[in-house]
Amino acid sequence: MRAALGFLTPFGPATPPTATTLRWFPVAGAVIGAAVGAVWWGAGRTFPGVALPAALAVTADLVATGMLHVDGLADSADGLLPHLPPARRLEVMAQPDVGAFGVATVAATLLLRVAALATLRPSVALLAGTWCASRAAMVAGTAALPYARGRGLATAFLGDRARSAALVAAAGGVGGAALAAVGAGVAGAAGVVALAVAAAGVLAVARARIGGYTGDVLGAAAVVGETVALVVASAGR
């Protein structure tokens, strides 16, 4: 658990990830989501209106994750969306700078997250469940896809058996849906279902264009899934 938090946030111990670390991703995601949800809930009772609490919640998530997953979203957009040969896609994703595809994708995503949260009643359980499910989707990606690079930070996850990772992902998804339902009823659970579909879509694009997953792709799948979940949950408010 501590290792998973250390990998997914800048606040835990900075230890190298292992296959065991991966199994704790859904639980760590629930903890991160609960912390972000607490900021959202507290801001909603401190400030007037809905826009500022929503913006503070999105900011709190960026701080809590050290922008790790948003960086993965930007890199994935730059590598997967333009017309490039497969080898060049991986080179672009490894570069430290961010291109037009990455900037536009991140900007649109953050706007959608703020707008969706602004339509919802602040709920710790909703974000804990959604963030739990998004990390479960990351685990599912390692079970469903081959690793696209020879070596990389996510190489450590290859030691886990696909069946074990799939079970962890399923448990995290079900647990996340249950928590989201507590926070936002049927709409919250529907959001988690939509999250799974959206994350699967990101992983499918990565499989088709670079042959599998990378750490950036896993982060992108999580952020896209969370954003779609919030939009779907807001539709049922």
Can you characterise this structure?
With 237 residues, the protein is mainly α. It contains 10 helices and no strands. The radius of gyration is 17 Å and the shape is globular.
Which ranges are low-confidence, i.e. pLDDT below 50, for 5 or more consecutive residues? none
% residues in beta strands: under 5%
Q: Report the end-to-end length measured between terminal Cα atoms.
A: 33 Å
Share in helix = over 70%
Order of helices and strands: HHHHHHHHHH
**Cα Rg:** 17 Å
* β-strand number: 0
Shape: globular
Largest sheet: none
Oligomer: single chain
Helix count from the secondary structure assignment: 10
Mean pLDDT: 91
Structural class, from helix and strand content? mainly alpha
Topology:
Blueprint: H1 2-8, H2 19-23, H3 25-44, H4 51-64, H5 68-80, H6 86-94, H7 100-119, H8 124-144, H9 162-210, H10 215-235
Kindly summarize this structure in a few lines.
With 237 residues, the protein is mostly helical.
Key attributes of the depicted protein:
237 residues; mainly alpha; 10 helices; 76% helix
